[in-house]
Write a structure and sequence with these properties.
eight-stranded mixed beta sheet, about 25% strand, about 220 residues, alpha/beta, single chain
Length: about 220
Amino acid sequence: MRKAPVSLIIAVRDGAKFIAEALQSVYDQTCPPEEVIVVDDGSMDETAMQVQRFADVQYVRQSALGFAHAKNHGARLASKPYLAFLDSDDLWPPTKTETQLDALSAAPELDFVYGLVAEFVGPSDETGARSAAAWASRVLGSVTIRSDSLRMVGPFATDLDVGTALEWWTRADDLGLRGKCVQELALLRRIHETNFGRRAHEPMRGYLRLLHSVVNRRRAGQ
């Protein structure tokens, strides 16, 4: 089987319920990543046991420092020319890696590609009915990016409670990174009561802090 020169990074905390299904969707790819890195951000459940079901996964554990720290840790460990991310409760459709790698190989001027995202609730066997409502999104799980491009933008901000990916994309846009939407399903996003976005403490205050940070940075740049 052809493998993709992609490093996949999964940052997880207490993800035992869904992470095996997420990893299975990665290994079920028509062109699976050559490198899969799981960074455990201080889980207190059976996450490690679930990950150990997959012999090829590089599993590393850190103190509970936050998902931005975990993603940065994974990016430092990554050794392949392309990077991808996946939340531990989400799924990839089978052709995600192959389709996006082919798009990047055909367009060397692009820094990243992304695709369509569909949401589903409950067991993964419900995803087929939801995929028709997919929309284009640069949410990290739908993206494949060149490793050099991610490093040029820099690490994810570790001083924000929410919106770390959004803040990173503002820096990528300011630097002029070039991307393209591949009009195919790239991510199946699970909606459930313990999604991190629902659990974040005072999310509105967090997003206002993010906005303030971006405005100040852009003013300083001008």
